[in-house]
Amino acid sequence: MKFPGRRRHKHYFPVEDKDPLTKQLISANSLKRSYIVGIDQIVVDIEAKVDSSFLTKFGLHRGMSQVIDDETTQALYQELQDKNLVDYEFAGGTIGNTMHNYSVLADDRSVLLGVMSENIKIGSYAYRFISNTSSRVDLGYLQGVDGPIGRCFTLIDESGERTFAISPGLMNRLRPESIDEDLIAGSAALVISSYLMRTEKEDTMTQAAIKAVKCANKAGVPVVLTLGTKFLIEQDPVWWQTFVAEHVDILAMNEEEGFAITGFEDPLLAANKALDWVDMVICTAGAQGMFLGGYIDECWKRHTKHALMPGAITDFNQYEYSRAMKRIDCETPIKAFTHSAPYMGGPDAIKNTNGAGDGALAAVLHDLSSNVYHKLNVPNSSKHQQKALTYSSLSQISKYANRVSYEVLVQHSPRLSRGLPEREACLDQAHWEQ
Q1: Is residue 394, in this structure, part of any structural domain at all?
Q2: Per UniProt, where does GMP bind (predicted)?
């Protein structure tokens, strides 16, 4: 598992290459592995460029995410095919993307829970999903269903606005009994999205997700929630605030979703408010970059060596060199924040915004899991005198997540095809020696 950050030598976690004193204590063959678990609506993303009349024809509301029935799905897809409008078809799903990206970054196991068609034909949607998912993602716990998985159409009109049409198929039929409680209890994190709560009466996905969340809460496993879309949160922000406060440890959102749940337009203030409910928050804000916030104990605070930054909260980055902690583990909790501007000023041309937030979250999960991995194998390390939630500082994690987002923005697929380089071609040797 590679360590995210600058290192002059190969940056692996200091577990396998031990010094003589610790090498005799732990056999390399007995290393314990950490993993994360995610629950998702298994879907294939289909992207196409259309005009406004196309949206009107199929009764789609511009700029919104909406569910369409099977009959509309077939007609819509057929017209896209007939007019040769389909640009790309990828394995999708916000948590599916996150699990894939995590496994690519960490070169390690993640587990995806959801449903999958029992009978898979070559070239089908289910086939496309499996063939475009990292082999490091464990799909062995998927529940078989007799029918199609979901399809999500991303329709881009003349102005560049994205309209989402979702054909659920049987993607919401994950049953509560398909949730393996031991699997979740042994994981480093459970990752879910707000979409899991948007189901119809005959669907069982919400009940399955709630069961998994309660299992994680009982086992002390961090629950990570990505908000997914502002439209869903806006329908009942109070319900979401209560759910987050009761069950979620880490919240991931963009500035629009942050406004929907907190009422604050400023992403820093939205992150600050979210910390009243959770232990750690990630807020991506487009061209502004990314804000990361968490709790630290007074005795473990580390001052930044960078210039203090102005903002809605004065000098908000003063403790950004600290490692995030759970609020319950802090005797004197302090809120700490960091900010990273877009890597390299952002890409010259953004080919796809889908998945950028999922990539950032995967980087944060990599660091979170890495902390568990190191603690499992070197429990007596001075690193773990502090009951930290993360392996690295808020500042370092933010830079890492920002870098991964950039990698997604410059490609069409929402999923990484390879890990990050050990050394950036754009950085000189002096940078790596620091």
Answers
A1: yes
A2: 93-97, 198
